[in-house]
Design goal:
Number of helices: 19
Shape: elongated
Largest sheet: 6 strands, mixed
Distance between the termini: 68 Å
Structural class: alpha/beta
Length: 582
């Protein structure tokens, strides 16, 4: 019952997406009507032509020629209407799938990081690309064959009733056999296609993960395990695909068998009626032609239903993504933070990623304008989480964070984040020129400003050695750039924007020691007068910080300057001395 409700809900969503193309849908329906009417009129013309041939030497060639002309004209109209209908159906499908993809991608920009952290990127990509393509194929088949199939069945019954009700009654009585066969198969295909689509998403996610981490896989000799994981998913995909294919492949032979029974019964009944003088030979040929035409849509519709089951399963996965709750919207009364003065306060802050696993509890920190705040502690103590909370990538579960005296929940996210500049250990380079990557936070920067920022972080030298200098196109993975060079571009990006507050999370982790010393000097100049949060594992790099927050298990256990903390001979002193022990 739950799956039926889900399928009907998906169908309603698809119909809602069709509302924007109502005029094209109506036009497609009218063309289908013309096509079906012309197709069904041809057998009548053929029957008339047969009745003009009553015996040797008794052929009315004039009437026969007129029928031939009518058949040719009707066939031409049918061909033209089908050609136009196919063009329109393709346009409808393109417009609907384009809109669904746009909805999915636009919604992706509003999803909270908690969703993106919990779902593999490969699965999300599979939903937006593979599932949407499958949905488009099913939708196109639906428009191309479903309309004409239904109209052909209705039109054929109407024409047959106008010729002889007795033979038509035979057809109507046997019709439920085709309907039963189609329903039997359709009810067993949806679940299989849904599982096939879900497993395909898992496979795409695994392949993407293995490609991204191929060096690590090879370095730790995990190729065998990777192949085993792929084989396991591939085995499940094979099972679901075989079952879906098995049930869908039953459609054609079963419906053809039923249709053959209908055709035989029509031929037998029509022959008896013709012998009794109730119908002409031409009329009988019309009935036999209609019996074929009446049966064919059941084949087509059965095949379409199978494809539509697959399409609905894929559409359901796309709509699941679109229906995921967006990031909590800014409050209606949210104000814009123009230029932060650098004051940051955390009062009784608590946060947990998983409901039953506390991470940060009752955290209190007060930062004055222009202070350099270093955050240190063992892995998993909450250092990066604290940065995520400052940027409102996640919202606190309790307490509050204030910037410039304002609660960050009372500020617009855009203005809050514009007042922070981030350089992370994980670099992000978008596909584009080096210049475009540096100006990400300040698109209107002048050439002199761009070069000055690159020189400040010692990136200008390697940039000018690139084939096209600042106009060299690099890919999202950084192309031929080393990890350190990618990190230098990220540092240049922040040095160009120069926001009032800075976040440096292992910002020089991939840079050689000599360059790091130079960049530390540039950072010192950049941080002058700016509130800075520095996350570092190499404690030698944060000795000049105004205040050092020592975190452990989500709490600030020590706080003070470098010398003060060493003098306390506490947890910080142990951390610091452990890095210099012989």
């Amino acid at each position: 019952m739950k799956e039926k409700a889900s399928s009907s809900k998906t169908l309603k969503r698809v119909i809602q997406n069709l509302e924007g193309q109502k005029h094209l849908v109506v036009l497609s329906f009218l063309l289908a009507l013309v096509s079906v009417a012309g197709t069904l009129f041809v057998p009548i013309l053929v029957g008339r032509a047969i009745d003009e041939i009553v015996g040797p030497g008794q052929v009315d060639f004039g009437a026969l020629g007129m029928n031939g002309v009518q058949i040719a004209v009707t066939a031409g109209v049918v061909a033209l209407s089908q050609w136009l209908m196919n063009i329109i159906n393709n346009k409808i499908t393109f417009c609907v799938t384009r809109e669904v993809r746009q909805q999915a991608f636009s919604h992706l920009q509003t999803l909270p990081l908690s969703y993106l952290d919990a779902h593999p990127s490969g699965e999300i990509v599979s939903r937006m690309i593979s599932d949407t393509e499958q949905f488009a194929d099913g939708l196109l088949l639906g428009f191309t064959q479903l309309f004409t199939g239904v109209l052909t069945i209705a039109g054929t019954l109407g024409f047959m009733l106008s010729l002889d009700w007795r033979i038509t009654l035979v057809v109507v009585i046997l019709t439920p056999l085709s309907l039963f066969a189609a329903k039997f198969i359709a009810t067993r295909t949806y679940d299989m296609f849904r599982m096939q689509s879900k497993t395909l998403g898992e496979q795409t996610a695994l392949v993407g993960e293995m490609l991204d981490g191929e060096r690590v896989v090879q370095a730790f000799s995990r190729e065998g395990r990777a192949v085993e994981a792929f084989d396991e998913i591939n085995g499940r995909l094979q099972k679901y695909t075989l079952r879906a294919t098995f049930f869908s492949s039953l459609t054609n032979p079963v419906t053809r068998f039923v249709n053959s029974i209908v055709y035989a019964c029509v031929a037998l009944t029509g022959a008896l009626v013709a012998v009794a003088g109730g119908i002409t030979v031409g009329g009988l040929s019309v009935f036999l032609s209609y019996a074929n035409q009446y049966a064919k849509p059941f084949n087509d519709i059965s095949g379409v239903v199978t494809e539509l089951q697959n399409a609905m399963a894929c559409a359901g996965r796309v709509f699941e993504l679109i229906d995921e709750p967006s990031e909590t919207a800014d409050a209606e009364s949210a104000v814009t933070l123009e230029h932060a003065d650098g004051r940051v306060e955390l009062k009784n802050v608590s946060f947990r990623y998983v409901a039953d696993r506390p991470l940060i509890e009752d955290l209190n920190v007060s930062v004055r304008p222009g202070e350099r705040v270093a955050i240190v502690g063992p892995t998993g103590c909450g250092k990066t989480t604290l940065i995520n909370l400052l940027m409102r990538f996640y919202d606190v579960n309790g307490g509050e964070i204030r910037v410039s005296g304002e609660r960050i929940t009372d500020l617009t996210r855009r203005s809050l984040r514009q007042n922070f500049g981030m350089v992370l250990q994980d670099t992000w380079i978008k596909t584009g020129t080096v210049r475009e990557n540096i100006t990400l936070g300040k698109p209107d920067a002048t050439e002199d400003e761009i070069v000055a920022a690159a020189k400040a972080c010692h990136a200008d030298g390697f940039i000018r050695r690139l084939p096209e200098g600042y106009d060299t196109v690099i890919t999202d993975g950084g192309g031929l750039l080393s990890q350190g060079q990618r990190q230098l571009l990220c540092i240049a990006r922040v040095m160009l924007a120069l926001p009032p507050m800075l976040i440096l999370d292992e910002a020089t982790s991939s840079i050689d020691t000599r360059t790091e010393l130079k960049i530390q000097h540039a950072f010192s100049q950049m941080m002058t007068g700016r509130t800075s949060f520095i996350v570092a594992h190499r404690l030698s790099t944060i000795r000049e910080a105004d205040v050092i927050l020592v975190m452990k298990d989500g709490h600030v256990i020590e706080q003070g300057k470098h010398e003060e903390l060493l003098a306390q001979n506490g947890f910080y002193a142990k951390l610091y001395n452990s890095q210099f022990e012989q």
